Amino acid sequence: xxxxxxxxxxxxxxxxxxxxxxxxxxxxxxxxxxxxxxxxxxxxxxxxxxxxxxxxxxxxxxxxxxxxxxxxxxxxxxxxxxxxxxxxxxxxxxxxxxxxxxxxxxxxxxxxxxxxxxxxxxxxxxxxxxxxxxxxxxxxxxxxxxxxxxxxxxxxxxxxxxxxxxxxxxxxxxxxxxxxxxxxxxxxxxxxxxxxxxxxxxxxxxxxxxxxxxxxxxxxxxxxxxxxxxxxxxxxxxxxxxxxxxxxxxxxxxxxxxxxxxxxxxxxxxxxxxxxxxxxxxxxxxxxxxxxxxxxxxxxxxxxxxxxxxxxxxxxxxxxxxxxxxxxxxxxxxxxxxxxxxxxxxxxxxxxxxxxxxxxxxxxxxxxxxxxxxxxxxxxxxxxxxxxxxxxxxxxxxxxxxxxxxxxxxxxxxxxxxxxxxxxxxxxxxxxxxxxxxxxxxxxxxxxxxxxxxxxxxxxxxxxxxxxxxxxxxxxxxxxxxxxxxxxxxxxxxxxxxxxxxxxxxxxxxxxxxxxxxxxxxxxxxxxxxxxxxxxxxxxxxxxxxxxxxxxxxxxxxxxxxxxxxxxxxxxxxxxxxxxxxxxxxxxxxxxxxxxxxxxxxxxxxxxxxxxxxxxxxxxxxxxxxxxxxxxxxxxxxxxxxxxxxxxxxxxxxxxxxxxxxxxxxxxxxxxxxxxxxxxxxxxxxxxxxxxxxxxxxxxxxxxxxxxxxxxxxxxxxxxxxxxxxxxxxxxxxxxxxxxxxxxxxxxxxxxxxxxxxxxxxxxxx
Length: 766
Ligand SMILES: Nc1nc2c(c(=O)[nH]1)N[C@H]1C(S)=C(S)[C@@H](COP(=O)(O)OP(=O)(O)OC[C@H]3O[C@@H](n4cnc5c(=O)[nH]c(N)nc54)[C@H](O)[C@@H]3O)O[C@H]1N2
Ligand SMILES: Nc1nc2c(c(=O)[nH]1)N[C@H]1C(S)=C(S)[C@@H](COP(=O)(O)OP(=O)(O)OC[C@H]3O[C@@H](n4cnc5c(=O)[nH]c(N)nc54)[C@H](O)[C@@H]3O)O[C@H]1N2
Ligand SMILES: [Mo]
Fold this sequence. Notes:
Strand content: 15-25%
Bound molecules: ligand MGD, molybdenum atom
Structural class: alpha/beta
Number of helices: 32
Number of strands: 31
Helix content: 25-40%
Shape: globular
Mean pLDDT: 93
Distance between the termini: 29 Å
């Protein structure tokens, strides 16, 4: 290896310590200091995930004992302080800064200005946002909606919205007349929502937190919990200390999966010690999980042939179908292809199979590294098939555990945010409310953006999020936004999607989850569903960022009342008391029996998960094995010089919200313009650590580029490279998707690299 690969690059300092520990406490203190008055912060943070407090907006990992002591979590603290910040974006500030000038700023700077304080309307003459009254805002929205066909309007949801807000939002859209519900889940776990129902009958995970107490093996695939599900680290830490093997599949070495010091563990903190998390770490190729999973399955079948002890044959014959087809395909898949496409050896995969056969209860946890591929749905079904081989669904300590993204993304889907509603749900809506909801399917996220780009859709109403920035290909999405007749954003903070103004653009500021929501003088609570289908209440206590703010349910109801003069929905009553919204949810969606009673118990209740009882709500009534044709995803674009780009979150980031420019555990400080690459590829491509390169999409027919990225030497698998999201979205074509679920292939964009300069950039281009 060239000695230059050890030279110093500004802002790049390999990190040697464990994840968590004192570094995490220090980072929390900094987050608090930058955003809040230090006096208020401790009591705010202590209310996170407490019975009488608010649900952490950070992630969807459940709490073991809702109501026990405050669980420390660095990134949860960042999420809370970012919302509870004392900084404000006032109408005066917006009058002084044109939209054109604000658009030159990054989302990091825009959100950094603080909370929105008043309803705003874009004024084209001055190119600024101006304050309007709520009534005027609703009137302008109603005017535009009145002139459009319902299917010309897209209703986007980002998964932070509560069950109550999301339910009212879908009610508004369906009474208006459309099923156009693009949502963040379409960019996230849609492969789970589409794949799992085919395998086990429901599109959700089957484990609850207790299962981790009796699990004997964890396979962790394609997720980075130290950053994205920090409270999961407590669980993994406990398992590792009990010597339960945790086998990780991830192209990148992620520090928290290697070593973690639990800030809740006094001993570790006092002695600066830590616990090894992964028992084995396999750096699979990006997109190589299907080959790896098939290799494990193949070795399991071989052990079965030798010993007859590897499969749960009773389970397979009683509860499943299509095993023979699945097994035949696995037999037909050669070890050569498996090794080539996974980047792992036969011996590696055989030893995973040994551990798997030894374990009486196995859980597979997975995230975006599995779903955001152009065969993401296939990947999910393959994981389910591997679990079915040994009856690992519907018994204690075992199951499938998709790690959800936004803190209530799962709840949003449960309460009706879907472009393909079931006829049962629609007829219940009709019976309860009296209007006839549309039955034809609507648009998902990519379809919505395409419809907007082609002017088939003319309006976009967003319940949170940063739609145009989160989607691939900003060239297309930014232009599409600018062509709209109407865009409406219900939001807490300013972002670039808001600034891509159309003919009529309104910004409606809402309460965040930490804030007191009073309706008719009574403190309201909302509800959310976590990754393990637990539904519980959350109520904020902080004084709202501005007296002008309204709650999300109130804003949705305000729009609906103005836009639907003959509405049959009692909007005002519903908003005056959220218990009534929950009653409507209970009447129209199964699983919410005695909703209001059950959320008043600390910890809430679990939604029905029939596969836990080995009841399979599939068409055949059985769980299904399925065949993954071949061993890899769409590699129509191949070639020695084609690399697979993984787009990633840094440690100081929440999706498009950037808290700061560091990514501590990956050794990056004060910059985001980096490209992670392994030694082998550096050498193969004639590059050196610190070189500046340009990237170009290798998908035929596209000339998409990302320029001036600094190459950083990193432990990542061969042929795979990593860069941060959303910056790298300029390299992903909008229709480079998983055809089954519509999920963009954010984790396997084919790109080529060209050297721009041998010189090390003096200062990072941020
Ligand atoms: N602090 C914080 N918390 C968050 C978020 C956040 O941005 N910040 N986002 C929230 C949301 S919406 C979501 S969806 C989740 C996301 O949580 P994750 O699922 O952890 O998402 P990513 O950071 O995108 O990282 C995916 C991991 O997959 C690995 N990976 C990439 N490609 C592959 C592959 O082909 N195979 C395998 N096996 N691994 C691969 C990457 O190296 C990385 O470690 O987190 C949620 N929580
Ligand atoms: N390249 C690449 N692209 C990706 C991904 C990736 O891994 N790689 N991940 C994808 C995934 S998993 C997801 S989930 C999407 C995320 O896509 P989105 O959910 O659309 O994006 P966020 O960045 O979470 O949205 C941030 C904005 O939400 C608003 N907000 C924050 N809190 C609240 C609130 O309480 N109420 C309301 N109304 N608004 C609020 C603020 O205005 C903030 O600017 O991005 C996807 N895009
Ligand atoms: Mo997500």
